[in-house]
Design goal:
Number of helices of chain A: 5
Radius of gyration of chain B: 19 Å
CATH superfamily of the largest domain in chain B: CO dehydrogenase flavoprotein, C-terminal domain
Oligomer: heterodimer
Number of strands of chain B: 13
Shape of chain A: globular
CATH architecture of the largest domain in chain B: 2-Layer Sandwich
Number of domains of chain A: 2
CATH topology of the largest domain in chain A: Ubiquitin-like (UB roll)
Strand content of chain B: 25-35%
Distance between the termini of chain A: 30 Å
Largest sheet of chain B: 5 strands, antiparallel
Order of helices and strands of chain A: EEHEEEHHHH
Radius of gyration of chain A: 15 Å
Largest sheet of chain A: 5 strands, mixed
Number of domains of chain B: 3
CATH architecture of the largest domain in chain A: Roll
CATH class of the largest domain in chain A: Alpha Beta
């Protein structure tokens, strides 16, 4: 069936199988491979994207369910060539090692900071508790999000 | 790659439309809400519906409000919204206790309370929480709405009284003064299904509640159990032992003993039967203790 999904502000219309998952729609049909695909069981969280402004695990959402809705992926974090403070924080604080969990972590971090601009370490850990870092680099991920909180000069990017 | 079998996709635009779609598919369709149980089951081919009826556009089923002496919860309320609601926390902290330990924040953004109840997973937390507080399910069908107590809602693992042409639309919880409630869960790791869990709601006699170190008399009590094979997620024997009795540690221990004795846990990778029975007892006591402390205003 035909679906139209707004991804990072741009409308995409594609013919898809009803059983296609949103994560594969983004990666294979739109070429937006920044969204990663991990456990396929909504445990690991690497496929996290925003659906209508809320982080969801895109391996457990059907592409047809996103028809008429808005998705934001990691490709939509930077604005006009300027990294989002969250992305910059991950650079500054060594927030990634292999990079597999990074897109999902950054999207959750962006959402957290939009709703709580000065989160405690505990609040950050709670926010990312549905996402696994296979390098176990959580310390630096938390530092990266704190860096972003302390260096946010841009308006919340909802 | 895990891929569901082929199915037709229908998107409901109203409750009546959803009911018409259900009638048209005659039992071959499944309703999808948050999808965080159904879609994984479809990927594993444990579920192979011919059609999915998507009710995510039914925002009229997403609400939390007081009406008279009842708290009304729309079936499409997301877990995250239940957890974030001060209204819910004020009247029934048991629901916040339970929500904090359901999956993880991102899953809670998508999963719904109605979907959780209808999935009827024996390890699902809200079923026991709603059983403890004696909630009522509102089910709409072709001939109108009917109500079923949550304590009669589940007919077995993954089975409920909701018919193939019906839709759960609301959960109603009576508000009664003088109460406290709590939920206690043991899980192997954060966000996992319960090894076991217990929920309790307790109403203490107004005269003696918290007065001069008196424990208070249990005017009424509700106890729910998760993942231990309790019939309808409900610990009826434990409740009966407490009604009218002083809210003491000794009586809580006896209620816990009864809760453990009357459930039917199954051994699995989360633990053997005797361990789960022990947890059912101990968690019942902890839930009662915390619920009573909240009823006395000693704990938030």
């Amino acid at each position: 069936m035909q679906v139209t999904v707004t991804v990072n502000g741009e409308e995409y219309t594609r013919d898809v199988d009803t059983r296609l998952l949103l994560v594969h729609f983004l990666r294979d049909h739109l070429g937006l491979t920044g969204t990663h695909w991990g456990c396929d069981t909504s445990n690991c969280g690497v496929c996290t994207v925003w659906l209508d402004g809320v982080p969801v695990k895109s391996c457990t959402v059907l592409a047809v369910m996103a028809d008429g809705h808005a998705v934001r992926t990691v490709e939509g974090l930077e604005r006009n060539g300027t990294l989002d403070p969250v992305q910059e924080g991950f650079v500054q604080c060594h927030g990634l090692q292999c990079g597999f969990c990074t897109p999902g972590m950054m999207l959750t971090a962006r959402w957290l900071l939009d709703h709580n601009p000065d989160p405690s370490e505990e609040q950050i850990r709670e926010a990312i508790s549905g996402q696994s870092c296979r390098c176990t680099g959580y310390e630096n991920i938390v530092r990266s999000v704190r860096w972003a909180a302390e260096h946010s000069t841009v308006e919340a990017t909802k | 790659m895990q891929v569901p079998a082929h199915f037709e996709y229908e998107r409901a635009t109203s409750v009546d439309h959803a009911l018409a779609l259900l009638a048209r598919w005659g039992g071959e369709a499944r309703v999808v809400a948050g999808g965080h149980s159904l879609i994984p089951m479809m990927k594993l081919r444990l579920a192979r519906p011919e059609a999915l009826i998507d009710i995510n556009d039914l925002t009229e089923l997403s609400y939390l409000r007081l009406a008279g002496d009842e708290l009304l919860l729309g079936a499409m309320t997301r877990h995250a919204d239940l957890l974030a609601s001060p209204l819910v926390g004020e009247h029934y902290p048991i629901l916040h206790d339970a929500e904090r330990v359901i999956a993880d924040p991102i899953v809670r953004n998508r999963g719904t309370i109605g979907g959780s109840l209808c999935q009827a997973d024996p390890s699902e937390d809200l079923s026991a929480a709603f059983a403890a507080i004696d909630a009522v399910a509102v089910i709409r069908g072709p001939s109108g709405a009917r109500t079923v107590p949550v304590r009669e809602f589940h007919t077995g693992p993954y089975e409920t009284v909701v018919g193939p042409d019906e839709l759960l639309t609301e959960i109603r919880v009576p508000i009664r003064p003088g109460g406290g409630s709590a939920y206690e869960k043991v899980e192997r790791r954060v966000g996992d299904w319960a090894v076991a869990a217990a929920g309790a709601a307790i109403w203490l006699d107004g005269e003696s509640a918290g007065g001069a170190g008196q424990p208070g008399i249990v005017r009424d009590v509700g106890i729910g159990l998760t993942a231990v094979g309790a019939s309808h997620f409900h610990a009826a024997e434990a409740e009966a032992s407490l009604r009218g009795a002083p809210a003491t540690e000794e009586n809580f221990a006896e209620a816990g003993r009864l809760a453990g004795a009357h459930c039917e846990p199954a051994a699995d990778q989360r633990g053997p039967v005797d361990y789960k029975r022990h947890l059912a007892s101990e968690l019942t006591v902890r839930a009662l203790r915390r619920a009573a402390a909240r009823a006395r205003g000693q704990e938030a």
